[in-house]
Task: structure prediction
Amino acid sequence: MNLKENLEAALSGEEVDKKPVISGTQIGIVEAMEKTNTSWPEAHKNAEDMAKLAAAPYELAGLECIRVPFCLTVEAEAMGATIDLGNEERTPEVKETPFETADDIETPDDFAEKGRIPVVRESIEILKEKYPEVPIIVGMTGPFTLTGHLLGIENLVKLIKTDPTEIEDAIENCLDVCMDYVEEIMEYEPDAICVAEPTASPELIDPIQFKTMIKPALEDLAEFIETKSILHICGSTQDIITDMASIGFDGISIEEAVDINKAKSDLAKIEAQGKTTSKILGNISTSQTLFTGSPEDVKSDVKKALDEGIDILAPSCGLAPKSPLDNIKAMVEARDEYYN
Result:
């Protein structure tokens, strides 16, 4: 099996000789920029640089995928939000938005050609041609997080309490935007799409609100995506793990705050009820182990995750830009050592 086939098999629940080591989340790091003569923010705007930097963890550390882009602001920018592209150590963020109400959110006719959408499309095309056996993963923003980007996080939090119907309408409109973006990306045949919903974390949103307000839109989005799909939600998602796993995504990306044993047990219970569930990936700490730990620390965490039955190894969230390249190598080395 090549890397692409191995990941597809793992996400499909098939037996694999070695569990894949990938990242569904941000993988740009400063050390890779130095080795590839690329940099942020230029690699956010230039397709050749985006492809080169995204491929660096595969080329230099053996990570078994290539993931673009490096942020969650592409859709918001194409919708008309003002973006601060950051610097080498800081990813882009939304600074200003022209939207005030749900009714303001409507995909423009030239959406596909606005902002950095053409850059992402071109980078996928470059990568697909150069790395035909390596899975290309495209990250995108989920409808709830996009709602926060377009209406403003403070406004989002306030309206959830004072006017939840307005937020539900905004999520529906943002779902349309997400589907329009998926249509554009699917033309270039990525091997997987990772939908990131950091704003839907139980640390920010009540699990009941996730189930009633956010999950339905994600179910529609999962059904719309015609390739392998992954859902990433930040933080301790233990309380919503069965909801996440029953949405319809092939994989769910979890942080180290989630107990894998308990998650696997909870998923087994709903599988026994005849419900389809996702495979679990992630769990290797990005804020501690991969960022400030040693390669030995990484290997210890990898062995633990494999012992507990993780389906696919991955960083628990987006890599901190100053993460050492050796720690990414250590993830792959530890997986290989585990099977020897």
